[in-house]
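Researcher: Good morning. I'm working through a list of sequences from a screen, and I'd like to move beyond sequence-only analysis. For each chain I'm collecting a predicted structure so we can compare shapes side by side. This is the next one on the list. No need for commentary yet; just the structure.
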Amino acid sequence: MEDNMSLEGKIEALLNVEKQMRLAGDVAGTRKAAMDIVELCYQAKAWKTLNDQIVLLSKRRGQLKQAVQAMVQKAMQYIDETPDLDTRIELIKTLNSVSAGKIYVEIERARLIRKLAKIKEEQGLISDAADLMQEVAVETFGAMAKTEKIAFILEQVRLCLDKQDYVRAQILARKISPRVFNIDPAKEKKKPKEGDGIVEEAPADIPSLLELKRIYYEHMIRYYTHQNDYLEICRSYKSIYDIPAVKEDPSQWIPVLRKICWYLVLAPHDPMQSSLLNATLEDKNINEIPNFKLLLKQLVTMEVIQWTSLWEMYKTEFENEKNLLGGPLGEKAAEDLKLRIIEHNILVVSKYYSRITLKRLSELLCLSFEEAEKYLSEMVVSKSLIAKIDRPMGVVCFQTEKDSNDVLNSWAGNLEKLLELVEKSCHQIHKETMVHKVVLKA
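Model: Good morning. Structure tokens for this chain:
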């Protein structure tokens, strides 16, 4: 009881000192008095009194922002020293309410909310943790270090993915520009201009920019896997593959390169997929996994691929694909793989044939008559191919029907070429006669 009285007496004395300093406009004195009160409560392990004093000091009339900032920063050091979880949550909530709406302690508030969200997550309240984190828009904090901002947004994205809120996860992920990961931090350190705010150093537990790059693309893979966007998954793996730490370690880049190959094969044929496919084939590292080099080679070669023999060859590889980031490939991917091979074969056939019977086409594709017609129709609808099917005759025509304008244009073009050739021939004959001085008789 005596200790309690002495604590109250000491706090009262310090509050008087704080008042005098505050009214005198002494910043250093006010800050010291406020910090002394906080430290006194901590040493006495009077956690409830600490919370009460923090609120009281922050609400005093004309309280100096430097005093509030110093008090919040000091009390934050005691969060991990609290005896139990309830006391910890209470202290975090007190500091959070004190710093709410105050720009000069916005970074501290963001860190407090992150701590509180972590506790909520450990309690299994993922949705509450995600909602808490979304309250803070760190991208507007000028004084926060870039890596800490990115780490905070990535945490927001992860929690949204965990609670399967994919729309919000994408909105939050768009706050990070992928270009930021390609900036060399050593070159970027420039002297702040006059009038620029001082950017704080990131805490020690914040990962480096390249580590954050990996985390960002791991989250994007989770998002695109849910969307079944194979090309974007492939591009995300490619970005992880380009991280120097990954490229230097074969145990890291081989599984990533395998995933790149699989998702390249699974992605629908388009210019971006083609350029990535050729770039991967030119990479000398692909020689380390010859099976996959052969798989990609088959896709760029304009020849029909036998689905049954290809599946026999790669079935075990497909099923044994490690549970890396995007997870196992699964049933849906197996169906899509077959679909991609069929699409490749139809494109090959359209290159070599202008007309073909559906019967022969189905034989080449190793499909039934109905299936061949179905897949061909789907490709025409998606505009990957131009074709017409004469169903009564059972003939597929890959040539486009020209309208009258096209026919006239091609005719005019051919006529122009012919006249050019005639003119060139006349010129050559005239040149020869001039050289040999031969008189041409009409």
